[in-house]
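Appendix C: a fully annotated inverse folding record. The material below is reproduced so that readers can follow the format used throughout the book. The structure is listed first as tokens, followed by the designed sequence.
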């Protein structure tokens, strides 16, 4: 872990090649995150796990500056980037074909048993998360880490420096607000 923290400091300092080393060191975890994310989508997109990880890398390199403190913060940021990639991909596909029935999305607390989502549901959840970000950006971070990256409550609490009880409250609050937004 100390090695990754040092590499993240090198990235913040602008050292050439440091971002490559960060990705090399975290590639397995990023690959697992991408796999979990795409597995829940039940192959809604034609993205595969490796493509999603590599797109994440390209976006982070394109941005140029990676301002993360530690492993948890980096993985949380990578989860946000992966969500953005999937949403952009779906948005692009839906732009080609508009319409369809309205679908309801339920965000369950057990990620492994959650039902697969469609492209329309991904877009609805993204729009609801954007609305939620206006109200409370911290809740969006919890949703991204819990729902999109598959982090446990304990992992999120550790990375945010708060108690698990706080994260559980934030998760419940976010679910209620998202449910209300998705019912519109």
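Designed amino acids, in order:
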């Amino acid at each position: 872990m100390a090695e990754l923290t040092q590499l993240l400091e090198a990235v913040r300092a602008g050292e050439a090649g440091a971002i490559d080393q960060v990705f090399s060191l975290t590639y397995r975890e990023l690959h697992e995150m991408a796999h979990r994310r795409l597995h829940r989508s039940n192959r809604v997109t034609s993205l595969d796990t490796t493509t999603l990880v590599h797109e994440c890398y390209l976006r982070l390199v394109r941005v140029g500056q990676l301002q993360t403190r530690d492993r948890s913060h980096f993985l949380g940021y990578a989860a946000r980037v992966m969500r953005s990639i999937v949403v952009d991909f779906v948005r692009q596909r839906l732009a080609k074909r508009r319409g369809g029935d309205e679908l309801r999305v339920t965000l369950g607390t057990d990620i492994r048993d959650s039902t697969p989502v469609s492209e329309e549901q991904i877009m609805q959840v993204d729009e609801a998360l954007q609305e939620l970000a206006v109200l409370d950006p911290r809740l969006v971070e919890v949703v991204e880490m819990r729902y999109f990256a598959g982090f446990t409550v304990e992992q999120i609490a550790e990375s945010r420096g708060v108690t698990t009880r706080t994260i559980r409250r934030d998760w419940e609050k976010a679910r209620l607000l998202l449910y209300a937004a998705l019912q519109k």
